[in-house]
Amino acid sequence: MFRKVVASTLVTIALSVSAWADGSMVPAEVVKVDKSAGKVTLKHGPIKRLDMDAMTMVFRVADPAMLDRMNTGDKIEFEADRVNGAITIIRLGKAR
Question: Domain containing 52 — which CATH number?
Answer without folding.
Answer: 2.40.50.320
